[in-house]
Design goal:
459 residues; alpha+beta; 47% helix; 12% strand; globular; five-stranded mixed sheet; D-Maltodextrin-Binding Protein, domain 2
Length: 459
């Protein structure tokens, strides 16, 4: 039975790779013919589609943009990450797709490797704006991450980091607890929370956020092995990775991970449960800093449908626990995250290009991105103006958020960059199979390696 499953996993991986390649070929044919001269660069109406940022943050960015370009109307459409790729593909294949759309450097949500054929080459535009040395003015690896076959398919505007856990400090303080530092601490903390009718560590295993948890666990066991497996320098069957899946299962067996993890979504289920005070711990990345601000947390609570007088919690990032007990320090891993691509068939290409260049290539645009504290800006020399950002509990939150931002900006360990969407999905499938007892950790590792063999890392 296991051999049959393994053959099926390999077959699925190869078939998926063929489909992606086919999609690229087809999209390359359909996305190369501009339908007009592109219109005005300083006026018109454009549609921006993305999975990030949240609506309130996008509105701030658009408002700041309109201070400089009042005659370009930008309409934002936020699509849930789980749906984004499926919604975007047919839209771009038609003649009615968005004028500007966000692409990711890696992962399964809007990967630039899939959508580059639909995108205009922004190299001439960014060169004209910043000069021939424009690459040196943005964070390392950003330009290369969004360049496909020599074409800058999207202008980067956000770097993202993960590896920290977030806690509701108010709940920890209420019960006289501190953030867990070891697996044993974690078990005891969860026992206290559960005895008081709360959840503990809630996660949706299935949308890709659980890959960060596996990564953090592996780094606790032997730092660097996950990154080496990602690049193909080590096997996913390495003993460290097998142990990481064993430990992931322990989070469930020991009462740390809330029940039903395979059946819930990180957004909105986990997000809403945490922000409304039902669970005290989640693992999210730097993007979660936005909910430390009064405005974004207010908007999130309204979106969750809770009463307007629901208390605003104090959320803070803390190190992921040393679950291996080896004393290895936790690490923040990061990737080039998001870039703005311009639809090559858009009749408003020039206005869309103006917006893309402003958001990612101007200090004004990058400042508002940075001040939204959901991403690290990619343009060098721009940092969040922490003194003017209204946090729920600034005395407690400011130093921790600044530290997380610094670690994310300086991090060189990749999060998922180089992994194909197929391999990422294989890791997610392995996480689910281990948690539900369908596969042993060793079997899960073997399945992921077979998928990786059919879909080599992009070094």
């Amino acid at each position: 039975m296991f051999q049959a499953q393994r053959r099926l996993a390999r077959s699925v991986a190869i078939t998926t790779g063929v489909l992606v390649a086919g999609a690229l070929a087809l999209s390359g044919c359909s996305g190369t013919a501009p339908s007009s001269d592109g219109g005005s660069a300083t006026s018109g109406s454009i549609q921006w589609w993305s999975w990030t940022p949240d609506n309130d943050l996008a509105n701030r960015e658009i408002a700041a943009f309109n201070k400089e370009f009042p005659d370009i109307k930008v309409t934002y459409k936020k699509v849930p990450n789980a749906d984004y790729t499926g919604v975007l593909r047919p839209a771009l294949a038609s003649n009615d797709g968005p004028d500007v759309f966000t692409v990711s450097a890696s992962g399964t949500v809007g990967p630039v490797s899939v959508f580059a054929p639909y995108a205009q080459d922004l190299t001439p535009a960014i060169t004209a704006k910043l000069g021939n040395d424009w690459k040196s003015q943005i964070a390392p690896k950003m330009a290369d991450a969004f360049t496909v076959q020599g074409k800058l398919a999207g202008l980067p505007w956000a770097k993202q980091g993960a590896g920290s856990m977030w806690i509701n400090k108010d709940l920890f303080d209420k019960y006289g607890l501190t953030a867990p530092k070891t697996l044993q601490d974690w078990v005891k903390v969860c026992q206290t929370f559960r005895s008081n009718g709360l959840g503990c560590f809630k996660e949706g295993v299935g949308a890709g956020f659980d890959v960060d948890t596996l990564h953090s666990i592996a780094n606790s066991i032997d730092p660097g092995v996950f990154a080496a497996a990602l690049s193909g320098d080590k096997k996913w069957t390495d003993p460290t990775m097998v142990k990481a899946w064993e430990t992931f299962k322990q989070l469930s067996d020991n009462g740390i991970l809330d029940a039903g993890a395979v059946g819930v979504q990180q957004y909105p289920d986990v997000n809403n449960a945490f922000l409304t005070g039902k669970v005290p711990m989640v693992q999210m990345g730097y993007w979660y800093s936005q909910y430390a601000t009064v405005n974004s947390l207010t908007a999130a609570l309204a979106g969750a449908g809770v009463p307007s007088d629901t208390p605003k919690i104090t959320i803070v990032p803390v190190p992921f626990p040393d679950v291996a007990g080896k004393g290895n320090p936790y690490t923040v891993f990061s990737d080039p995250d998001a870039a703005q691509a311009v639809n090559i068939k858009s009749k408003s290409r020039n206005a869309a290009t103006t917006f893309a260049l402003w958001l990612g290539g101007s200090k004004a645009g990058q400042q508002v991105v940075s001040d939204n504290v959901d991403s690290i800006p990619t343009l060098k020399g721009v940092e969040a103006a922490w003194n003017s950002i209204q946090l729920v509990n600034p005395k407690v939150q400011t130093p921790l958020l600044q530290d997380f931002a610094k670690k994310t900006a300086e991090s060189t360990e990749p999060r998922q960059l180089g992994l194909s969407p197929t391999v990422i999905q294989a890791i997610i499938d392995a996480n689910q199979a281990v948690l539900t007892g369908q596969n042993s950790p060793a079997q899960a590792a073997d399945d992921v390696q077979h998928v990786a063999d059919a879909n080599p890392a992009n070094k």
